[in-house]
Amino acid sequence: MDMNVKQNEQQHHSTKSPSSSSSTTTDHDPMQSWWESVSKARSTILSLSSIISSFDSSLADSDRPALSLLSSFDAYSLLSSALSAPSSGSGTDPLCHWLYDTYLSSDPHLRLIVISLLPLIINIYLSRVHSSNSVPSLSGFEAVLLALYSSETKSRAGKPLLVQIPDLSQPSLYHTPRNKPSLPDHGSRPSVGVLSLPLEPQVAVKSTKRPCIVGVALDCYFKQISQMPTWSKVDFCQFATAWAGQDCCCVHEFDQNGNGNEVVEEMGGSMNDKFDDPIKLESKGARIPLPWEMLQPMLRILGHCLLGPLNSQDVKDAASVAVRCLYARGSHDLVPQAILATRSLIQLDKRARQAANAAAAANASSNANMPSKAKKPEILLVSK
Protein backbone atom coordinates (compact mmCIF):
# COMPACT_ATOMS: atom_id res chain seq x y z
CA MET A 1 0.00 0.00 0.00
CA ASP A 2 2.80 2.36 0.91
CA MET A 3 4.64 1.51 -2.30
CA ASN A 4 1.59 2.31 -4.37
CA VAL A 5 1.27 5.66 -2.65
CA LYS A 6 4.92 6.45 -3.31
CA GLN A 7 4.61 5.43 -6.95
CA ASN A 8 1.55 7.61 -7.35
CA GLU A 9 3.43 10.52 -5.77
CA GLN A 10 6.39 9.96 -8.09
CA GLN A 11 4.09 9.85 -11.11
CA HIS A 12 2.37 13.00 -9.88
CA HIS A 13 5.70 14.81 -9.51
CA SER A 14 6.92 13.54 -12.86
CA THR A 15 3.83 14.86 -14.58
CA LYS A 16 4.25 18.23 -12.88
CA SER A 17 7.94 18.69 -13.53
CA PRO A 18 7.71 19.44 -17.28
CA SER A 19 5.13 22.15 -16.77
CA SER A 20 7.03 23.70 -13.89
CA SER A 21 10.28 23.65 -15.85
CA SER A 22 8.58 25.16 -18.87
CA SER A 23 7.11 27.94 -16.75
CA THR A 24 10.55 28.56 -15.26
CA THR A 25 12.14 28.82 -18.67
CA THR A 26 9.37 31.16 -19.77
CA ASP A 27 9.92 33.40 -16.76
CA HIS A 28 13.65 33.63 -17.47
CA ASP A 29 13.41 33.80 -21.25
CA PRO A 30 15.61 36.77 -22.26
CA MET A 31 13.71 37.28 -25.50
CA GLN A 32 10.42 37.49 -23.65
CA SER A 33 11.77 39.98 -21.10
CA TRP A 34 13.33 42.07 -23.89
CA TRP A 35 10.02 42.24 -25.75
CA GLU A 36 8.18 43.20 -22.58
CA SER A 37 10.62 46.05 -21.91
CA VAL A 38 10.32 47.27 -25.51
CA SER A 39 6.52 47.15 -25.34
CA LYS A 40 6.53 49.07 -22.07
CA ALA A 41 8.90 51.69 -23.47
CA ARG A 42 6.74 52.08 -26.58
CA SER A 43 3.57 52.58 -24.57
CA THR A 44 5.36 55.10 -22.34
CA ILE A 45 6.61 57.09 -25.32
CA LEU A 46 3.27 56.90 -27.13
CA SER A 47 1.59 58.40 -24.08
CA LEU A 48 3.48 61.62 -24.86
CA SER A 49 1.26 62.07 -27.92
CA SER A 50 -1.68 62.82 -25.65
CA ILE A 51 0.40 65.47 -23.83
CA ILE A 52 2.22 67.05 -26.79
CA SER A 53 0.06 67.07 -29.90
CA SER A 54 2.94 67.55 -32.36
CA PHE A 55 5.03 64.76 -30.88
CA ASP A 56 6.47 62.32 -33.43
CA SER A 57 5.04 58.96 -32.41
CA SER A 58 7.18 57.14 -34.99
CA LEU A 59 10.03 57.15 -32.46
CA ALA A 60 8.21 54.37 -30.63
CA ASP A 61 8.51 52.08 -33.67
CA SER A 62 12.24 51.63 -33.15
CA ASP A 63 13.77 48.50 -31.66
CA ARG A 64 15.19 50.78 -28.96
CA PRO A 65 12.47 53.39 -28.54
CA ALA A 66 13.88 55.00 -25.40
CA LEU A 67 17.29 55.58 -26.96
CA SER A 68 15.65 56.87 -30.14
CA LEU A 69 13.79 59.47 -28.10
CA LEU A 70 16.95 60.34 -26.18
CA SER A 71 18.91 60.96 -29.40
CA SER A 72 16.18 63.00 -31.11
CA PHE A 73 16.82 66.74 -31.05
CA ASP A 74 13.32 67.48 -32.37
CA ALA A 75 11.75 65.58 -29.48
CA TYR A 76 14.03 67.40 -27.03
CA SER A 77 12.94 70.74 -28.49
CA LEU A 78 9.27 69.84 -28.12
CA LEU A 79 9.75 68.76 -24.52
CA SER A 80 11.73 71.93 -23.82
CA SER A 81 8.97 74.11 -25.22
CA ALA A 82 6.35 72.30 -23.15
CA LEU A 83 8.41 72.61 -19.97
CA SER A 84 9.04 76.31 -20.64
CA ALA A 85 5.33 77.13 -20.90
CA PRO A 86 4.10 79.62 -18.27
CA SER A 87 1.68 77.07 -16.82
CA SER A 88 4.23 74.26 -16.55
CA GLY A 89 5.52 72.82 -13.30
CA SER A 90 2.25 72.72 -11.39
CA GLY A 91 0.91 69.71 -9.58
CA THR A 92 -1.59 69.09 -12.37
CA ASP A 93 0.93 69.36 -15.20
CA PRO A 94 0.60 66.10 -17.19
CA LEU A 95 4.18 66.34 -18.45
CA CYS A 96 5.51 66.47 -14.88
CA HIS A 97 3.39 63.42 -14.09
CA TRP A 98 4.90 61.67 -17.11
CA LEU A 99 8.45 62.56 -16.04
CA TYR A 100 7.78 61.38 -12.49
CA ASP A 101 6.31 58.03 -13.55
CA THR A 102 8.98 57.51 -16.19
CA TYR A 103 11.83 58.02 -13.76
CA LEU A 104 10.28 55.55 -11.32
CA SER A 105 10.11 52.90 -14.04
CA SER A 106 12.57 50.02 -14.09
CA ASP A 107 13.86 50.82 -17.60
CA PRO A 108 17.26 52.57 -17.28
CA HIS A 109 16.99 54.01 -20.80
CA LEU A 110 13.68 55.68 -19.98
CA ARG A 111 15.26 57.17 -16.88
CA LEU A 112 17.97 58.69 -19.08
CA ILE A 113 15.31 60.72 -20.89
CA VAL A 114 14.27 62.35 -17.62
CA ILE A 115 17.88 62.95 -16.60
CA SER A 116 18.66 64.63 -19.93
CA LEU A 117 15.94 67.19 -19.19
CA LEU A 118 17.24 67.97 -15.69
CA PRO A 119 19.21 71.11 -16.67
CA LEU A 120 16.09 72.61 -18.22
CA ILE A 121 13.85 71.61 -15.30
CA ILE A 122 16.28 72.98 -12.71
CA ASN A 123 16.77 76.21 -14.65
CA ILE A 124 13.05 76.92 -14.97
CA TYR A 125 12.37 75.90 -11.38
CA LEU A 126 15.13 78.02 -9.81
CA SER A 127 14.47 81.00 -12.08
CA ARG A 128 10.83 81.06 -11.00
CA VAL A 129 11.61 80.47 -7.34
CA HIS A 130 14.07 83.37 -7.20
CA SER A 131 12.06 85.74 -9.39
CA SER A 132 10.46 88.80 -7.85
CA ASN A 133 7.08 88.05 -9.41
CA SER A 134 4.43 85.92 -7.77
CA VAL A 135 5.32 82.29 -8.39
CA PRO A 136 2.60 79.75 -9.20
CA SER A 137 2.67 76.26 -7.78
CA LEU A 138 5.81 74.36 -8.76
CA SER A 139 4.91 71.10 -7.06
CA GLY A 140 5.20 69.21 -10.36
CA PHE A 141 8.86 70.15 -10.77
CA GLU A 142 9.48 69.50 -7.09
CA ALA A 143 7.97 66.01 -7.36
CA VAL A 144 10.42 65.14 -10.15
CA LEU A 145 13.37 66.47 -8.14
CA LEU A 146 12.23 64.59 -5.04
CA ALA A 147 11.99 61.37 -7.06
CA LEU A 148 15.67 61.65 -7.95
CA TYR A 149 16.58 62.68 -4.42
CA SER A 150 14.70 59.74 -2.87
CA SER A 151 16.31 57.28 -5.28
CA GLU A 152 19.78 58.60 -4.47
CA THR A 153 19.04 58.57 -0.74
CA LYS A 154 18.06 54.92 -0.96
CA SER A 155 21.15 53.98 -2.98
CA ARG A 156 23.54 55.70 -0.55
CA ALA A 157 21.94 53.90 2.42
CA GLY A 158 22.68 56.68 4.88
CA LYS A 159 26.40 56.80 4.10
CA PRO A 160 28.39 59.88 3.03
CA LEU A 161 30.28 60.15 -0.23
CA LEU A 162 33.99 59.99 0.57
CA VAL A 163 37.14 60.50 -1.46
CA GLN A 164 40.53 59.20 -0.36
CA ILE A 165 43.30 61.76 -0.75
CA PRO A 166 46.70 60.08 -1.24
CA ASP A 167 49.58 60.85 1.08
CA LEU A 168 52.19 62.58 -1.08
CA SER A 169 54.97 61.70 1.39
CA GLN A 170 54.58 58.03 0.46
CA PRO A 171 55.80 56.58 -2.86
CA SER A 172 53.18 55.71 -5.41
CA LEU A 173 52.95 52.57 -7.52
CA TYR A 174 54.80 54.35 -10.32
CA HIS A 175 57.89 55.29 -8.27
CA THR A 176 61.22 53.70 -9.17
CA PRO A 177 62.52 52.11 -7.05
CA ARG A 178 59.37 51.08 -5.26
CA ASN A 179 61.13 50.68 -1.91
CA LYS A 180 59.68 52.65 0.93
CA PRO A 181 61.80 55.57 2.13
CA SER A 182 63.84 55.08 5.26
CA LEU A 183 62.11 57.96 7.00
CA PRO A 184 60.59 57.55 10.44
CA ASP A 185 56.92 56.64 10.26
CA HIS A 186 54.86 59.09 12.24
CA GLY A 187 51.68 57.11 11.76
CA SER A 188 50.63 58.99 8.63
CA ARG A 189 47.33 57.84 7.22
CA PRO A 190 45.68 58.77 3.94
CA SER A 191 43.27 61.60 4.56
CA VAL A 192 39.65 61.21 3.61
CA GLY A 193 37.56 64.03 2.20
CA VAL A 194 33.79 64.23 2.39
CA LEU A 195 32.13 65.01 -0.94
CA SER A 196 28.60 64.80 0.41
CA LEU A 197 27.14 64.26 3.85
CA PRO A 198 24.59 61.48 4.46
CA LEU A 199 21.25 62.32 2.89
CA GLU A 200 18.14 62.64 5.00
CA PRO A 201 14.76 61.57 3.61
CA GLN A 202 12.64 64.50 2.46
CA VAL A 203 8.93 64.60 1.69
CA ALA A 204 8.83 68.21 0.49
CA VAL A 205 11.20 70.80 -0.95
CA LYS A 206 11.77 73.27 1.86
CA SER A 207 13.72 76.45 1.25
CA THR A 208 16.50 75.30 3.59
CA LYS A 209 16.81 71.93 1.83
CA ARG A 210 16.38 73.17 -1.73
CA PRO A 211 20.13 73.54 -2.53
CA CYS A 212 20.83 70.01 -1.29
CA ILE A 213 17.96 68.48 -3.29
CA VAL A 214 18.94 70.33 -6.46
CA GLY A 215 22.60 69.42 -5.89
CA VAL A 216 21.72 65.73 -5.63
CA ALA A 217 19.77 65.99 -8.89
CA LEU A 218 22.81 67.58 -10.56
CA ASP A 219 24.97 64.78 -9.18
CA CYS A 220 22.61 62.25 -10.79
CA TYR A 221 23.08 64.12 -14.07
CA PHE A 222 26.86 63.96 -13.68
CA LYS A 223 26.79 60.20 -13.12
CA GLN A 224 25.09 59.71 -16.50
CA ILE A 225 26.76 62.58 -18.36
CA SER A 226 28.63 60.29 -20.74
CA GLN A 227 25.25 59.19 -22.13
CA MET A 228 23.74 62.66 -22.35
CA PRO A 229 23.17 64.18 -25.81
CA THR A 230 25.18 67.18 -26.93
CA TRP A 231 22.29 69.64 -26.79
CA SER A 232 21.59 68.78 -23.16
CA LYS A 233 25.21 69.52 -22.22
CA VAL A 234 25.23 72.79 -24.15
CA ASP A 235 22.01 73.84 -22.42
CA PHE A 236 23.51 73.12 -19.02
CA CYS A 237 26.62 75.18 -19.79
CA GLN A 238 24.48 78.10 -20.96
CA PHE A 239 22.30 77.84 -17.86
CA ALA A 240 25.41 77.82 -15.66
CA THR A 241 26.60 80.98 -17.43
CA ALA A 242 23.29 82.68 -16.71
CA TRP A 243 23.22 81.45 -13.10
CA ALA A 244 26.65 82.98 -12.51
CA GLY A 245 25.43 86.31 -13.87
CA GLN A 246 28.91 87.88 -14.07
CA ASP A 247 30.10 89.64 -17.23
CA CYS A 248 32.74 91.90 -15.66
CA CYS A 249 36.42 92.11 -16.54
CA CYS A 250 37.21 89.21 -14.19
CA VAL A 251 35.83 86.87 -16.83
CA HIS A 252 38.77 87.63 -19.15
CA GLU A 253 41.45 87.61 -16.45
CA PHE A 254 43.12 84.39 -17.63
CA ASP A 255 42.50 84.71 -21.35
CA GLN A 256 45.84 86.29 -22.25
CA ASN A 257 48.19 83.53 -23.34
CA GLY A 258 51.87 83.57 -24.11
CA ASN A 259 51.42 84.40 -27.78
CA GLY A 260 49.44 87.53 -27.05
CA ASN A 261 46.25 86.09 -28.49
CA GLU A 262 42.93 85.83 -26.76
CA VAL A 263 41.38 82.50 -25.92
CA VAL A 264 38.10 84.16 -26.80
CA GLU A 265 39.32 84.54 -30.38
CA GLU A 266 40.12 80.83 -30.49
CA MET A 267 36.50 80.13 -29.58
CA GLY A 268 35.31 82.13 -32.56
CA GLY A 269 33.98 85.03 -30.50
CA SER A 270 31.30 82.90 -28.85
CA MET A 271 32.15 84.40 -25.49
CA ASN A 272 31.60 87.94 -26.72
CA ASP A 273 28.32 86.91 -28.31
CA LYS A 274 27.05 85.66 -24.95
CA PHE A 275 27.83 88.95 -23.22
CA ASP A 276 26.85 91.32 -26.03
CA ASP A 277 23.32 89.92 -26.23
CA PRO A 278 21.63 90.30 -22.82
CA ILE A 279 18.28 89.15 -24.24
CA LYS A 280 19.80 85.82 -25.26
CA LEU A 281 21.43 85.47 -21.85
CA GLU A 282 18.19 86.26 -20.03
CA SER A 283 16.27 83.69 -22.06
CA LYS A 284 18.67 81.03 -20.84
CA GLY A 285 18.13 81.73 -17.15
CA ALA A 286 18.83 84.33 -14.50
CA ARG A 287 21.36 85.02 -11.77
CA ILE A 288 20.59 82.86 -8.74
CA PRO A 289 22.27 82.01 -5.43
CA LEU A 290 24.92 79.31 -5.85
CA PRO A 291 25.66 77.57 -2.54
CA TRP A 292 28.41 74.96 -2.46
CA GLU A 293 25.88 72.09 -2.48
CA MET A 294 24.95 73.15 -6.01
CA LEU A 295 28.26 74.56 -7.18
CA GLN A 296 30.25 71.40 -6.48
CA PRO A 297 28.32 69.10 -8.86
CA MET A 298 28.11 71.96 -11.38
CA LEU A 299 31.91 72.15 -11.53
CA ARG A 300 32.20 68.39 -11.98
CA ILE A 301 29.79 68.55 -14.91
CA LEU A 302 31.67 71.48 -16.46
CA GLY A 303 34.95 69.64 -15.99
CA HIS A 304 33.64 66.76 -18.08
CA CYS A 305 32.27 69.15 -20.71
CA LEU A 306 35.65 70.88 -20.93
CA LEU A 307 37.96 67.88 -20.99
CA GLY A 308 35.85 64.97 -22.23
CA PRO A 309 37.59 63.67 -25.37
CA LEU A 310 34.33 62.76 -27.12
CA ASN A 311 32.64 66.12 -26.54
CA SER A 312 31.98 68.37 -29.51
CA GLN A 313 33.64 71.76 -29.82
CA ASP A 314 30.32 73.46 -29.08
CA VAL A 315 30.16 71.75 -25.70
CA LYS A 316 33.76 72.69 -24.87
CA ASP A 317 33.26 76.31 -25.89
CA ALA A 318 30.05 76.65 -23.87
CA ALA A 319 31.73 75.08 -20.84
CA SER A 320 34.71 77.41 -21.22
CA VAL A 321 32.42 80.43 -21.07
CA ALA A 322 30.55 79.05 -18.05
CA VAL A 323 33.73 78.31 -16.07
CA ARG A 324 35.03 81.85 -16.58
CA CYS A 325 31.72 83.33 -15.45
CA LEU A 326 31.70 81.12 -12.36
CA TYR A 327 35.26 82.23 -11.59
CA ALA A 328 34.15 85.85 -11.73
CA ARG A 329 31.15 85.03 -9.53
CA GLY A 330 33.36 83.25 -7.00
CA SER A 331 35.81 86.15 -6.97
CA HIS A 332 33.04 88.64 -6.22
CA ASP A 333 31.37 86.41 -3.63
CA LEU A 334 34.76 85.52 -2.07
CA VAL A 335 34.24 81.75 -2.17
CA PRO A 336 37.70 80.11 -1.91
CA GLN A 337 36.56 76.67 -3.11
CA ALA A 338 34.92 78.15 -6.20
CA ILE A 339 37.94 80.33 -7.01
CA LEU A 340 40.40 77.45 -6.71
CA ALA A 341 38.29 74.98 -8.70
CA THR A 342 37.42 77.38 -11.52
CA ARG A 343 41.01 78.63 -11.81
CA SER A 344 42.17 75.04 -12.22
CA LEU A 345 39.56 74.34 -14.90
CA ILE A 346 40.47 77.53 -16.78
CA GLN A 347 44.16 76.60 -16.78
CA LEU A 348 43.37 73.07 -17.98
CA ASP A 349 41.16 74.51 -20.71
CA LYS A 350 43.91 76.86 -21.88
CA ARG A 351 46.50 74.09 -21.98
CA ALA A 352 44.17 71.79 -23.88
CA ARG A 353 43.49 74.49 -26.48
CA GLN A 354 47.18 75.34 -26.82
CA ALA A 355 48.03 71.66 -27.28
CA ALA A 356 45.29 71.29 -29.90
CA ASN A 357 46.52 74.37 -31.78
CA ALA A 358 50.12 73.15 -31.66
CA ALA A 359 49.10 69.73 -32.96
CA ALA A 360 47.08 71.33 -35.76
CA ALA A 361 50.01 73.58 -36.72
CA ALA A 362 52.45 70.65 -36.70
CA ASN A 363 50.09 68.61 -38.83
CA ALA A 364 49.70 71.46 -41.31
CA SER A 365 53.47 71.98 -41.58
CA SER A 366 54.11 68.27 -42.08
CA ASN A 367 51.55 68.18 -44.86
CA ALA A 368 53.15 71.23 -46.49
CA ASN A 369 56.66 69.70 -46.39
CA MET A 370 55.53 66.36 -47.71
CA PRO A 371 56.67 66.05 -51.35
CA SER A 372 53.89 65.52 -53.77
CA LYS A 373 54.01 62.63 -56.18
CA ALA A 374 55.30 63.50 -59.62
CA LYS A 375 52.67 63.27 -62.26
CA LYS A 376 53.19 60.76 -65.02
CA PRO A 377 53.76 62.32 -68.42
CA GLU A 378 50.72 62.32 -70.57
CA ILE A 379 50.90 60.07 -73.60
CA LEU A 380 48.88 61.17 -76.56
CA LEU A 381 47.91 58.58 -79.08
CA VAL A 382 47.91 59.93 -82.59
CA SER A 383 46.25 57.95 -85.29
CA LYS A 384 48.13 57.66 -88.55
From TrEMBL:
Residue ranges, compositional bias (Low complexity): 16-25
Leader sequence residues: none
Assigned keywords, A-Z: Cell membrane, Cytoplasm, Membrane
CC annotations in GO: cytosol; plasma membrane
Compartmental location: Cell membrane; Cytoplasm, Cytosol
Coiled-coil spans in chain: none
Residues spanning the membrane: none
InterPro entries in the cross-refs: Hyccin
GO biological process: phosphatidylinositol phosphate biosynthetic process; protein localization to plasma membrane
Superkingdom to which the source organism belongs: Eukaryota
Region (Disordered): 1-30, 362-384
Family: Belongs to the Hyccin family.
Protein name: Hyccin domain-containing protein
Organism: Cephalotus follicularis (Albany pitcher plant)
